[in-house]
Amino acid sequence: MQEFEAKHRRLSDRVERVLMQLVILGLVAVVLVQTLAVVPSLRQKLNLLEGTDGYAVAAATPAAKAYKLTVHLDTMRSAPEAKLLVAGKAVASFAEGQATASVEPGQLVAVDGSRYEQALTFRVVAAPGLDSPPLGGEVTTRGDRQSLGVVRRRSH
Fold first, then answer.
1. Among 38, 66, 109, 146, which is disulfide-ready with 102 (CB 3.0 to 4.6 Å)?
2. Is residue 83 within 8 Å of 123, Cβ to Cβ?
3. What is the pLDDT of residue 103?
4. Domain ranges (residues) in the chain
5. 92: left (phi over 0), alpha (psi -120 to 50) or beta
């Protein structure tokens, strides 16, 4: 009986050590992720929805009306590696200095200038029927992605 108890005590001690190590590693991982989220430049790269607090991001439905949105690159003639993002997907590049895309209410529109170290300024030049992103609205990327806003149609 004593041999049985000794064997199971060793086993339970090993299991306890492994569980404690897993708990400690988990806590270290949580602290590391929370620390990274405090750095603004990293937070912007990790979270495309940064700055959309308070907006309802609705899934697009087949019945939703599509609108045209045109964004112009102000700081250079061309930036083929810069992208216009709609709902997180690259839909157009700024190879010609501006990009036009079809958007639907509720979609998040952003620009991706992460392939360029220099500051790039983008401006909304056409948004017929839309309140957001606003006509004339500007964002500047500095090697990152910036949100232009959530598409909202003009209220009558």
1. 66
2. no
3. 93
4. 2-38, 53-153
5. beta
More confident residue, 80 or 55: 80
26 — pLDDT class (breaks 50, 70, 90): very high
Quick one: tokens of 84? Answer: 């216009």
The pair of three-digit structure tokens given for residue 13, joined into one six-digit string: 């001690």
d(CA 127, CA 71): 9
Beta strands per DSSP E along 2-151: 67-73, 79-86, 89-94, 98-103, 108-112, 119-126, 130-132, 138-142, 145-150
Q: Is 146 helix (H, G, I), strand (E, B) or coil?
A: strand
Average pLDDT over every residue of 79-93:
92
Beta-carbon contacts of 83 under 8 Å, excluding residues fewer than 6 positions away, are 90, 91, 92, 93, 94, 99, 111, 112
Residues 45 and 144: beta-carbon distance below 8 Å: yes
> Are 139 and 150 in contact, with CB atoms under 8 Å apart?
no
Distance CA 155, CA 41 (A): 34
Output the CA torsion 95→99→102→107 (10° steps): 100
Length of the chain, in residues: 156
Phi, psi of 145 (to 5 degrees): -110, 145
Assign 6 to helix, strand or coil.
Answer: helix
